[in-house]
Amino acid sequence: MCGATEGGLSLDGVDVAKEAVVQGQVTRGGEPVGNAYVRLLDRTGEFTAEVPTSATGHFRFFTRDGEWTLRALAPKAEVVDQAVVAAIGSVAEVAIAV
Amino acid sequence: MSREETLVTTQWVEDNIDNDQIVLIEVDEDTTAYDKGHIKNAIKFDWSIDLQDQIRRDIISKDGFEALLSKSGVSNHHTVVLYGGNNNWFAAYAYWYFKLYGHQDVKLVDGGRKKWELESRELVQDVPERTATTYTAQKLDSTKRANRDDVVAAIGTKNLVDVRSPDEYAGRLLAPAHLPQEQAQRAGHPPTAANIPWSKAANDDGTFKSNEELTKLYEDAGVDFGKDTIAYCRIGERSSHTWVVLHELLGHENTKNYDGSWVEYGSLVGVPIVLGDERGEA
């Protein structure tokens, strides 16, 4: 993938020092899931954003300092929730197996 | 309008996929999604090109809308069926556009592209060829669109519904969290606006909640349906989703979409802004 970085998606043009990045990959049996959806829920469980995964199963959010929950929806799979802590100036990597 | 006239199911789309009377159009925030695969016979509108004036910040003109539909092979007599990713945000925006310019027979696929994908239904690469038409639009219906002066005048007098996420409403985020946060405008919301995120109107699979659940959602948040309502978000797409809920599914015709939304309001000089989770006073 052009401009690939850890996490699989390019961060070209983004000032990472000013962002609290949460990103990762959705897999099933070790294989990437390219047709899943990942939701970002805030500390109260409220929906904040949602992205489809890339062809390589990757996803990314720009959040703020604090605790978040990632919720993965994939065809023919149970919903999976995973907690993550984000901080400005850092990239939190999360692997989600469905 | 009613729920039955506004929404079709994914199964209905599959059953009608070769029906010549229907024009299926995908409108996605990710404008490359269509190119990776789409529902058979669907054409694509690129919201950033087809649905935005390319010089000033505005929706396209009546002439522009007529040209778009004509070259896309959409006639005044077609049933237009819209779907898209991101829980239909941009498909709802296109839906609002069709209503602004007077196309009555337009529908949204309940759940949109996400539900179609989660149900493992077929996506194809073939781009259909359509014969150009001569489409005639109606004059823009300003009863469905709010501007910045309408919003300032609504503070403390009408229902202002901020459909962004709680963190955007409070000013802790400036954009939806799948986008970088560094932005020029100020953060927060206009005084007295209620925060009713668009996502509360949808189920996880992207379908709309029942009319009973929707009515309770807005009433519990203090919306007085006896008053006019203006919905806004950051750039007008998520609030189109809420406009569809209030104006079309629930039939509250005194609902407008403020497509200038926070990118405009948060850049205005001298207008009041409230930070934090409270609505604030007029």
Model description:
The complex is a heterodimer of chains A (98) and B (282). Chain A has a single domain, classed as Immunoglobulin-like, CATH 2.60.40.10. In chain A, strands 1, 2, 5 and 8 form a four-stranded mixed sheet that branches. In chain A, strands 4-3-6-7 form a four-stranded antiparallel sheet, with no helix packed on it. Residues 1-7 of chain A have low confidence and may be disordered. Chain A has no helices and eight strands. Chain A is 0% helix and 51% strand. Chain B is built from eleven helices and ten strands. Chain B has 282 residues and is of the alpha/beta class. In chain B, helix 5 packs across helix 10. In chain B, strand 9, helix 10 (238-249) and strand 10 form a beta-alpha-beta unit. Chain B is globular and about 55 Å long. Chain B has a five-stranded parallel sheet with strand order 1-5-4-2-3. Chain B folds into two domains: 3-140, Oxidized Rhodanese, domain 1; 143-265, Oxidized Rhodanese, domain 1 (3-Layer(aba) Sandwich), CATH 3.40.250. Classes of the chains: A mainly beta (98), B alpha/beta (282). Chains A and B meet through strand 3, strand 4 and strand 5 of A and helix 6 of B.
Number of DSSP helices of chain A?
A: 0
Question: Quick one: CATH class of the largest domain in chain B?
Answer: Alpha Beta
- Approximate helicity band of chain A: under 10%
CATH structural class of chain A? Mainly Beta
Low-confidence stretches of chain A: 1-7
- Percent range for β-strand residues of chain A: over 45%
Distance between the termini of chain B: 33 Å
The figure for the number of domains of chain B is 2
Instruction: Report, as a whole number of angstroms, the end-to-end distance of chain A.
Output: 24 Å
Principal-axes shape call of chain B: globular
Give the biggest beta sheet of chain B: 5 strands, parallel
- Low-confidence blocks of residues of chain B: none
Summed up, the domain count of chain A is: 1
Mean pLDDT of chain B: 95
